[in-house]
Amino acid sequence: MARVRISDVAAAAGVSVTTVSLVLNDVESRISAETRERVRAAAAAVGYAPSSVARGLRQQRTNTVGLISDQIATTPFAGRMLAGAQDVARENGKLVFLVDTSGDRVVEDAAIRALAAQQVDAMIYAAMWHRVVPVPESLPADAVFLDCRPEGGGRRSVVPDDHAGGVAAVRELVAAGHERIAYVDAVPGPGRPIAADLRLAGYREVLADAGIAADPLWHVHGEMSARGGRDAADQLLALDDARRPTALFCFNDRMAAGAYLAVRARGLRIPHDISIIGYDDQQLIAAEQDPPLTTVALPHYEMGRWAMEVALGIRVGETDATHQMECPVIRRDSVGPPPAHVGKQNRRRASQHTERSRDATPER
């Protein structure tokens, strides 16, 4: 079907093309109200739709946003970030141009320049996981960083609050009555995620606040995979009864899935004999465990919305501070109280700790 042109509207209304253009673009002119109404009626009758691109160029807006990512577009794990960004764009009549660079700097630079040539209204620079990134020289100064922070700061950015998430995870275990809580951590060294140390700090903070002396043997490391989680959990479960943890806080859900295997291999039950909490709320992993895994959710969708709202000027984003998004606990069935005999010991120690604290408090 041939596209309806402005000349078709002019013929139907019996006026010039210039008159049609002035009317449909609401340009101030001496055209009578009657003629304006006739032009609009003719445009509706022939099904004419003005070019949004042409209008955008006249207004110096293209109603498009460029989103540069490393691996998000091809990774279901972080696809919710795209959904959040695209929902905001759609709600505001914007089209998102998405470029997945696979982390290639040459491809990334070419993509940024191409988007700038397309005169996109805004750009978002996204990463698949929380990290500090070098700022590409060609990236516009007003670009928004999503799930990453720029080296040197000074840019608008949003990341998950992994420290607070670690605090929330361990508080969940303490509230259930656990004192022997282990942290199944990522391996130290190059490639270790920033989030690992932030979650570790949250773990230590909660134990200290609860008056729990953390046994160094409760902090183990493994590859960030199910195999790594299983090997690390095996180390913990091999401890003698007096030191074996009753709860595991795992760096991510894949490691937690591996811990499930280690627990079952020893004939133990979750959460009756040991509780497990993960992190990420990863699709097709956390909720599919048996029992379903209690975990801390990465706020991918919310971060995507925040970044797009800031990029479009709907929300204010501070350039001198990274916005940290809350990571909520998703409660399922893998956390319960410690085994009965350990629970009695924990309650006895808690009572003694309270009495010592009371005795140490000076009278007023």
From TrEMBL:
InterPro entries: HTH_LacI, LacI/GalR-like_sensor, Lambda_DNA-bd_dom_sf, Peripla_BP_I. The keyword DNA-binding applies. SUPFAM superfamilies: lambda repressor-like DNA-binding domains, Periplasmic binding protein-like I. One of its GO terms (molecular function) is DNA binding. It comes from the Bacteria. Residues 328-364 are annotated as: Disordered. Residues 352-364 have a biased composition (Basic and acidic residues). CDD domains: HTH_LacI, PBP1_sucrose_transcription_regulator. It holds the Pfam family LacI. Residues 4-59 form the HTH lacI-type domain. The keyword Repressor applies. Keywords: DNA-binding, Repressor, Transcription, Transcription regulation. This is LacI family DNA-binding transcriptional regulator.
